[in-house]
Design a protein that fits this description.
The structure holds two protein chains of two kinds. Chain A is an alpha/beta fold. Chain B is elongated. The structure holds adenosine-5'-diphosphate (ADP) and magnesium ion. Adenosine-5'-diphosphate binds next to strand 2 and helix 1 of chain A.
Chain lengths: ~270, ~400
C-alpha cells in the first residue's frame, strides 16, 4: 500500500542547528495493516508522518501509494488519500462551528467546489447514525459548537471525520497523548474499532507502550531518524511491555558505544 | 613472602618472612591495608626473617604509615637484620626501628598463630588450592576454526570463565562462567537473557569452549565485606587484591556474591563463529558484535562473580589476564552474572548452599565480562560492590596450555 524508500530529511543543514530528522528510512505497509511507531522524543516519528502527508519536501527518497509516486503532490492533493489526527484535540476541528458543520466539511474533503457549511437533512441523518457509534451521546448535540466538547470527545470526532471518506491511509500522531487516561483509553479503543471495521491501513505514533502492544499488528521503533526495530507477525505477538523497555535500553546502549569504547574493549575484551 | 599476624594486647604483631622488594611490595601493602580496614591500628613488625628491603619496600612502608596516621595508628619494627636496619636509617626512616623487643611483647609467645583471624574472615581449609588450565586458541577477532574449540565438562569443583557454546547449541559462542559446576551462559544475541546448565543427578554440564580460564579445586578463605563510615563500596581491584593477600599467592581465583553498587562490562551479541573477515570489526560494525553496558548498571541487584587475579609480574601470567588500568600491578579477568537481589545471611556462608539457592531461584538478568573503564573523560570507573562474600583460593602450578 504505502512504500517509503530511502527517505531523508535534514533540518537547518550545514548550520550548528543541523538535525538529521530522517536518515534513509525504508518502510512498507501492507494494505489493511495497522502499524505503531514508537521512539524517544525527537527520533523523527512526526517528521516521518509529515513527509508522507506532504507537509514538507524531503531531501531524498521516494514515497508511493499503491504504486503511484506522490512526491510531486501537494499536501492538499494528498489529503484525498490520507486522513490525519494530531495530538492536539483543537487542531483538526473548527471550535466555533457545530459538530454537524465540522463533519460536513470533512465529508467534502478534497472536493474542488467551494466549501459550504450547509447541512442537508439527509446529511444530518447520516451524521447522527455514525456519531451514535461513538457512544458519547453526541448525536443529540449535533448543532452545538464543537468548542464546547471535552478533549476526548473532540478527538473521537476528529477520528471519525478523518476516516469518514475511508482514506487509503490513516496517519495518527500521538492522538491520545493530550487526553486524560480514561479518555485516552476510550479513543484508543475507538481507533482500533474503526481501523478494523473499515479495514484501513494505519500508521500511528504513540508514546504509550501499552497501546503499541495492544492495538496494532506491527511495531516500528525509531531512534535518531532511523528505524531501529521492527516487530511484525510472530515477533509482534510475543513481545510485551518489558521487552519494549529492554529494546529502548539496547538502543540507548548502542548510542553510548562510541569509538573510545571500541578502544577500551580492544584492550580489555580479549 | 609470608606475612603472619597475631594480636597481642592492643598490638598486632606482624611476622614477615622473605624479601620486601618491587615484586612483593604491593602484596605487602595490600595485606597491611586490609588489616587497617579491619580495625587494627597499632602494629609491631618482627623483621627477623625479612632478608631484604628495597626502595619499593620503603615506599610501601611509607604508604602504610601514611594510612596509619589518618587513624592515629603506629608501626614499629624490631629484630631487623643489619641490612634492613641500615637501609631504613640511610633512607631517613630510622625512627621506626626499636632497639629491642617492646616491653609488652617481652614475655609473650611471638610465634605466629595461623588462625587468629578477624571476625569477618573465615579460614575454610588452609591447604585448599586450585589448579589452572588456560585455553587461548581463539582471540578476538580471528576466524573460529574447528580446531579452536574443545569440549569441556565442568564437574562440581570447577570454576571457570570464558567464551563457549553449550554443546547442543552448535557454534553459538558467547560469554560464560562456571561456579561449582553450575554454568551460566549468555547466548550471543542482543535480546536473549542468560541460560543455565545445572549439574542435576549424573549430568555434568558440558560446553564447546574456544577460550577459557579454568580452575579446579577449592577455596581457602571466605571474606565477608560490608560498608562502614569511611567506605561505601568495594572496587573490583580492591577485592581482587584482597584475594591475593588473603591467599598469600601470586595468582588467586575467587567467587563473589554481593550487592551491586554498579557494574561496567561487555558481552558478545553475535557468535564469533559467524565472522567472515579475518580482521577486527571496525567502528561502528563492532557494535553488532559486542554490547557495552554504557553506564554503571544493575545497581542494587546481586552479582555472582568469578575471577582470576595475578600479580603483574608473575611467570604464571597469560594472555587472558589483563592488567587493571586502575591498579596495573594486578592482572585479572572477571565475569559477572546478575541475579535479582536477595539478601545474604551474615557470618560464615557455605558456597555450595548459596549456589544452589541462586541457581534454583529466579534466572539471571545478565552476564558480562567486567571492564575497568578509565577512559579520560567518559570513563565509568570500575565495577564495585556494596556488601557480600568472597571465597578465594590460591591458584598453583604451571598452567597447561592446551
Ligand atoms: N519543521 C522543523 N524544523 C526544524 N526542525 C524540526 C522540524 N520538525 C522537526 N524538527 C526536528 O527534527 C527532529 C525530529 O522531530 P520529530 O519528528 O518531531 O520527533 P518525534 O516526533 O519523534 O518526537 C527533532 O530534533 C526536531 O527538533
Ligand atoms: Mg512527535
Amino acid at each position: 500500500m504505502l512504500s517509503i524508500k530511502g527517505l531523508s530529511k535534514t533540518f537547518f543543514p550545514n548550520t550548528i542547528n543541523e538535525v538529521k530528522a530522517l536518515r534513509n528510512v525504508d518502510l512498507t505497509l501492507e494494505a489493511g495493516s495497522f502499524t505503531c511507531i514508537i521512539g524517544t522524543n525527537g527520533s523523527g516519528k512526526s517528521t516521518l508522518l509529515n513527509a508522507v502527508a506532504g507537509t514538507f519536501v524531503p531531501d531524498n527518497g521516494v514515497i508511493t501509494v499503491d504504486g503511484t509516486a506522490i512526491g510531486g503532490w501537494t499536501e492538499y492533493q494528498r489529503a484525498k488519500l490520507i486522513g490525519r489526527v494530531f495530538q492536539n484535540p483543537f487542531a483538526g476541528t473548527a471550535a466555533e462551528m457545530s459538530i454537524a458543520e465540522n463533519i460536513v466539511m470533512a465529508m467534502r474533503r478534497g472536493q474542488s467546489r467551494p466549501l459550504t457549511r450547509a447541512v442537508t437533512t439527509q446529511a444530518k441523518k447520516e451524521i447522527a447514525d455514525k456519531v451514535c457509534m461513538l457512544k458519547m451521546g453526541l448525536e443529540d448535540r449535533l448543532d452545538n459548537p464543537i468548542g464546547t466538547l471535552s478533549g476526548g470527545q473532540r478527538q473521537a470526532l476528529t477520528l471519525l471525520m478523518a476516516t469518514w471518506l475511508k482514506p487509503k491511509l490513516l496517519l495518527l500522531d500521538e492522538h491520545t497523548a493530550a487526553l486524560d487516561p480514561k479518555s485516552a483509553a476510550k479513543v484508543a479503543e475507538l481507533t482500533r474499532q474503526i481501523i478494523r471495521d473499515e479495514k484501513l491501513t494505519a500508521l500511528m505514533v504513540t508514546h504509550s507502550m501499552q497501546q503499541a502492544i495492544e492495538l496494532p499488528d506491527r511495531i516500528v521503533m525509531m531512534h535518531r531518524g532511523q528505524i531501529v526495530e521492527d516487530y511484525q507477525k510472530e515477533d509482534k505477538k510475543r513481545i510485551r511491555v518489558p521487552d519494549l523497555l529492554d529494546t529502548f535500553d539496547r538502543v540507548q546502549k548502542k548510542e553510548l558505544f562510541d569509538e573510545s569504547v571500541m578502544q577500551l574493549l580492544a584492550e580489555q575484551y580479549v | 613472602m609470608e606475612i603472619h599476624a597475631k594480636k597481642i594486647n592492643q598490638q598486632l604483631l606482624i611476622t614477615v618472612n622473605g624479601r620486601l622488594d618491587a615484586s612483593w611490595s604491593d602484596y605487602f601493602t595490600d595485606a597491611f591495608l586490609a588489616f587497617i580496614r579491619n580495625g587494627e591500628h597499632q602494629f609491631v613488625l618482627d623483621a627477623k626473617a625479612l632478608s631484604f628491603l628495597s626502595s619499593a619496600g620503603i615506599r610501601s612502608l611509607v604508604r602504610i604509615t601514611k594510612e596509619l596516621r589518618t587513624v592515629e595508628g603506629s608501626m614499629h619494627i624490631f629484630n631487623a637484620t643489619e641490612f634492613v636496619a641500615g637501609t631504613l636509617r640511610t633512607t631517613g626512616f630510622g625512627d621506626w626501628l626499636l632497639d629491642e623487643i617492646p616491653a609488652e611483647l617481652k614475655h609473650q609467645n611471638l610465634q605466629p598463630e595461623q588462625n587468629a583471624l578477624p571476625e569477618n574472615l573465615f579460614l575454610l581449609d588452609k591447604n585448599a588450592s586450585l589448579s589452572l588450565k588456560t585455553h587461548t586458541n581463539w582471540k578476538p577477532w580471528q576466524l573460529v576454526k574447528t580446531t579452536d574449540s574443545e569440549t569441556m565438562q565442568f564437574p562440581a569443583d570447577s570454576y571457570a570463565l570464558g567464551i563457549g557454546s553449550p554443546s547442543a547449541s552448535g557454534k553459538l559462542f558467547g560469554d560464560f562462567m562456571v561456579v561449582g559446576g553450575h554454568v551460566a551462559y549468555q547466548s550471543p544475541e542482543e535480546k536473549s537473557r542468560p541460560d543455565f546448565l545445572l549439574p542435576i543427578e549424573a549430568y555434568i554440564p558440558e560446553m564447546e569452549v574456544i577460550q577459557s580460564l579454568r580452575t579446579e579445586g577449592s577455596f581457602s578463605h571466605l571474606w565477608r565485606f560490608a560498608p562502614d563510615a569511611d567506605k561505601s563500596a568495594f572496587t573490583i581491584a580492591e577485592l581482587a587484591g584482597q584475594a591475593l593477600s588473603l591467599t598469600h599467592a601470586e595468582m588467586s581465583a575467587f567467587v563473589i556474591l554481593a550487592e551491586i553498587d554498579g557494574l561496567v562490562g561487555a558481552h558478545l551479541i553475535q557468535s564469533p563463529a559467524l565472522r567472515q573477515a579475518e580482521n577486527s570489526p571496525a567502528f561502528p560494525e563492532i557494535r553488532d558484535w559486542l554490547s557495552f553496558s554504557g553506564e554503571r548498571v544493575f545497581v542494587g541487584e546481586q552479582a555472582m562473580i568469578f575471577g582470576v587475579v595475578s600479580q603483574h609480574n608473575t611467570t604464571m601470567n597469560n594472555d587472558l589476564l589483563i592488567p587493571l588500568p586502575s591498579m596495573p600491578t594486578l592482572a585479572a579477568h572477571l565475569h559477572a552474572a546478575v541475579f535479582p537481589y536477595q539478601p545474604l545471611q551474615n557470618g560464615e556462608l557455605n558456597l555450595k548452599q548459596q549456589l544452589d539457592k541462586f541457581f534454583n531461584g529466579p534466572p539471571p538478568k545478565a552476564l558480562m565480562h567486567l571492564i575497568d573503564d578509565q577512559r579520560p573523560e567518559a570513563g565509568l570507573g570500575q565495577s564495585s560492590l556494596i556488601r557480600g562474600a568472597m571465597w578465594c583460593g590460591k591458584v598453583i602450578g604451571k598452567e597447561n596450555k592446551l
